[in-house]
Design brief:
Elements: H1 7-20, H2 27-38, H3 49-61, E1 72-78, H4 93-104, H5 108-116, E2 119-126, E3 137-139, H6 157-176, E4 182-187, H7 191-203, H8 219-236, H9 243-250, H10 253-267, E5 272-274, H11 277-289, E6 297-299, H12 307-315, H13 331-349, H14 353-356
Parallel strand pairs: 1-2, 1-4, 2-3, 4-5, 5-6
Helix pairs in contact: 1-6, 1-10, 2-3, 3-13, 5-13, 6-10, 7-8, 7-9, 7-11, 7-12, 9-11, 10-11, 11-12
Length: about 375
């Protein structure tokens, strides 16, 4: 008799299936896109990275008319037990308070989302506090935050699996809703500490080199944060060749959720725009799990957090913008999604030399 399959086993299989189904890009589609771009009424390459973006969209979607319709940013919120160590300039209660601010439309991500025509979807995946029946919140709470990683693993195996599965479910919903472009965002006091720990392990760089001010620590606060991360790495000994082990031991629930979202989106050929330092740590974990993910993601911007450039180098991504931002929430994603939408419109709506009756370059 075959034993019944447990929920955790189903979740694990969902992740394995998503990872295995992420395709390799067909470079013929990119070559076809470049041929079309070179026939538009402009000198070849004169629109710079907009042309690169458009060609990647064509290859990702395998479509002659790339789309950025029904875009959305998924802002995942969770708390971190490591805040007990005094690693943030703000109290843990701010995570829940900011979620309420998102839901009332008053945060920077709401303003930029409205400006760029991108829907903001707020997800409670691990906030230490309840919200009742507040409208607009997607409830996927795995636990009321992680444990203090300075004293042991941040998550159990079951919690990690559940958070990854939540992200996979969000990707499935995005596909069902016909979203052809999605972005990532996050909220969680203490999450730059987790991201710095992940960065140090994956990139093999010293903690001090990849740890910054976060929400605004002074120099003494930064030194304390560095010491806490070093202690967490010594206590947990995460395996640098096993991204899941790194994520479980020194990550966060929202980072794990974003990792699942990115993997699930890539498996469905949905391009993902990832935001700043925290979102990039999730993208880096996803790329470490399945390197083909890097073909399906766009780096929104370069954060002023020192570890961000190290992560971008690790996954081989060049950011679309450098605005010295370090807020998170998905703010960089919103702005970059507007650029990507513009690239798609250039590709789809510009006339060719022949259709416009414009002479091409001299031989």
């Amino acid at each position: 008799m075959v034993p019944p399959v447990k929920h955790g086993e189903v979740a694990s299989r969902m992740l394995e299936d998503a990872v295995a189904s992420i395709p390799a890009l067909n470079l013929e589609w990119r070559e076809r896109a470049m041929e079309h771009l070179n026939n538009l009424t402009k000198p070849p390459g004169s629109l710079g990275r907009l042309e690169e973006i458009a060609a990647r969209l064509v290859a990702i979607q395998e479509s002659e008319r790339p789309e950025c319709s029904n875009p959305a940013i998924f802002t995942l919120a969770a708390d971190h037990g490591v805040t007990e160590e005094g690693v943030s300039a703000y109290p843990k209660a701010v995570t829940r308070q900011m979620v309420l601010n998102f839901l009332s439309g008053g945060a920077a991500i709401n303003v930029l989302g409205r400006h760029c025509g991108v829907e903001v979807i707020v997800v409670d995946i691990g906030v230490d506090g309840e919200f009742g029946d507040v409208a607009g919140l997607v409830k996927m709470k795995v636990a009321p935050g992680t444990r203090n990683m300075a004293r042991g693993p941040a998550m159990s195996e079951a919690e990690l699996t559940a958070a990854l599965n939540a992200g996979l479910e969000l990707a499935a919903r995005a596909h069902t809703q016909g979203r052809s472009l999605i972005g990532t965002g996050e909220m969680g006091i203490g999450n730059t500490t987790a991201a710095s720990a992940i960065t140090s392990v994956l990139t093999a760089r010293p903690v001090a080199e990849v740890t910054g001010r976060g929400t605004g620590l002074d120099q003494a606060g930064i030194q304390r944060k560095i010491q806490v991360i070093e202690r967490a790495l010594a206590v947990n000994r995460p395996n640098s060749s096993d991204a899941m082990d790194v994520l479980r031991k020194v990550g966060g629930l929202e980072i794990a959720g974003l990792t699942g979202l990115i993997l699930g989106a890539a498996s469905r050929r949905i391009p993902v725009v990832f935001d700043g330092f925290i979102s990039t740590s999730a993208a880096a974990v996803a790329c470490a799990i399945q390197p083909r993910v890097s073909d399906f993601i766009f780096a929104a911007h370069l954060s002023s957090e020192p570890g961000h450039s190290a992560l971008l180098e690790f996954i081989g991504q060049k950011p679309l913008m450098d605005l010295e931002m370090r807020l998170g929430e998905g703010t960089g994603s919103a702005l970059a999604m507007s650029l990507i939408g513009a690239a798609a419109k250039v590709y789809n709506e510009m006339a060719t030399f022949s259709s416009a009756g414009v002479s091409g370059a001299l031989a």
